[in-house]
Task: structure prediction
Amino acid sequence: MNRKLFRNASIFTPVDRGTPLSGKDQGKVVCLPKGAVYCRCGVIEDIGEERELLSRLSPSQVDVEIDCGGRCVIPGFVDSHTHMCFAKRREEEFNLRLDGVEYLEILRRGGGILSSVRAVRASSEDELHTVTKQLALSALRLGTTTVEIKSGYGLDVESELKMLRVIRRIGRETPLDVVATFLGAHAVPEEFSTTPDDYVNLVIQEMIPAVSAQGIARFCDVFCEKGIFTVDQSRRILETARTAGLAPKIHADEVHDLGGSALAAELKAVSAEHLLRASDANIRAMARAGVVGVLLPATAYSLKKAYAPGRRMIESGLPVAIATDCNPGTSYTESMPFVFGLSVLQMHLSVSEALVASTINAAHAIGMSEYAGSLDVGKKADLLLLDGDSPAILAYHAGVSPVVQVYKQAEPVHET
Amino acid sequence: MNRKLFRNASIFTPVDRGTPLSGKDQGKVVCLPKGAVYCRCGVIEDIGEERELLSRLSPSQVDVEIDCGGRCVIPGFVDSHTHMCFAKRREEEFNLRLDGVEYLEILRRGGGILSSVRAVRASSEDELHTVTKQLALSALRLGTTTVEIKSGYGLDVESELKMLRVIRRIGRETPLDVVATFLGAHAVPEEFSTTPDDYVNLVIQEMIPAVSAQGIARFCDVFCEKGIFTVDQSRRILETARTAGLAPKIHADEVHDLGGSALAAELKAVSAEHLLRASDANIRAMARAGVVGVLLPATAYSLKKAYAPGRRMIESGLPVAIATDCNPGTSYTESMPFVFGLSVLQMHLSVSEALVASTINAAHAIGMSEYAGSLDVGKKADLLLLDGDSPAILAYHAGVSPVVQVYKQAEPVHET
Result:
């Protein structure tokens, strides 16, 4: 049962060249109109035109054959930026925002990130796990096979570790591959509101060492923004984290051009996120430094903001990834098909660029390109069967997921 | 089994006053935080606060009790403008459009509406039925319980009648309530390209009488647009249709301010659709004439166009409905939750205005307010259970349907 042949598939996949794809390469996707994928124990052993692939196989080497009916097959989505570990939705706050209440006023009334912090602190690990798992499994059904999840609603040593344990459990108890990012510097918690530097010291002196000692996160991220963490504070945190074995990521230049993307280039961060206000010079600097720009169009959609200049970034040579930013405040969506559609229709990426952005470049942005992001031999057989002829169906079928089956390591996720 | 009590529901519903809701009334929705609905044979017999409603019932009057778990319950969506009867998707054309190919060039290459016409003409009734039913059932699972479907991809007497027979079968063979609209004047078919007036005569002299004689459509619609049908041609068609018992609807002022909305006001049409270019004077004229403005935000989304000025229309007193425009060219979506989200986040309707627009005003726009559009006593028990506290979840949970169960005449649609 562990040797599977997917045949009669219209395969679209990027080819992994070992580094994120940028510029014209971001739009290059291989198409096998009548393709096949052969897997053993959930790993891709061969891929190619069906006729050629079959000539390399004897029938006795196939335990299960899956006829894809000529439909489009793409790699599983890699959602490279989420905050999907939280205790409570913030539907009420969404209503306030629609009524025109300003974010600072929402904060004053106890809303915003800090309300998520209160809810996470008050939740047991099991409660937090239940909410997170439900969302993660929904993401999986929508085609996400690899996901990054950040902490950052704990903001004290024990609550941050609690979040990271929950994130680890999601990786163990669901088919998803989960990458954990420590985001202690997501906001300054209420108890440090008048002494933010003391909180930065807590992150540096206690949180990072504890997270590192437990080996419970792979990346460290910082919300570098006016009124949140300065460029200098961000640099101190990320340099400490790197020394402790946590590779740096940065929420940069989302609301103001504060210099977060310059810092990302300086530190050669794995990725820089949001980037709505990043200057052209800093975009080019990040491109030279090998940073992946992770764009979050559903956040712009939900906040009714302008979209990040994805096209300009690609033209400037910055490899672009797209992600949901799934969180209870500014982007409550776990749907990569929706984000794919937004990136094409609102950020003007081509369909091929969006496919690269949601698979291989995203895999590079979270250090998972060895396993995920393309249908290359040796990678996990994470693949999506779409109700369509090409990946364009992800934008064309607006607001409806065309993912009819998800195969995680060749095993079907949807009931069959 | 035919007497059902829905209890522990957070009910949000417009109240039907017999006419479409406009101005400030468009934003008025009743909320019963701990409400209940009592139905017999799929019809609402009582609705109110649970405690009060229970005091009016004896336990022996309830066969089945459904605990809604405190979740939000709203009326089923009424999708008041669709072209979901078609034979083939136009995914390839979507790709061309993304590549910047102009619509006229797409037409020249055999795309656009006329390619759907060729496909419908070449399809058997059963083939057309299979495609349409699949889409209609998907719409039902996404919360649409009443739907309008237009002909208009046949453009000859027999093919238009074939479409209308398929639309009737959808109404008979699915739980959906289906309203058929004859749209022979959707485009000028290729064989009349040099003699468009002859086609108008065919619509007037042969199609309308045939449709009317068979009693197979309730409305007649016209695509009144520069290069399609003029205001004078539209008037002739709609006046003939009205005399034959088909109430008028108009695709008006979508691309140019041609005068379609003025004609809608003049004819006191049931509805006018699209309206992206309608002037303020014509918006007020339609409001005075009792026309419902049917806005189609997913079309603007898919075409990357500006949205219709929904807020301004509401402030001008025009009752507004929202619909999917589901069609294979310019808006391939059957999701009312998606359209709801767009209307709130992109057209700036309030959540309550969007709820009215997608239920009671939409029901009035297709003559179905006796049966649908609100949870009033005597109407069908078409109700949606949402995974959320309020209808805001439809916009807040971006790109994901929060409809966890659809009850059509009190019967569950999703597997339980």
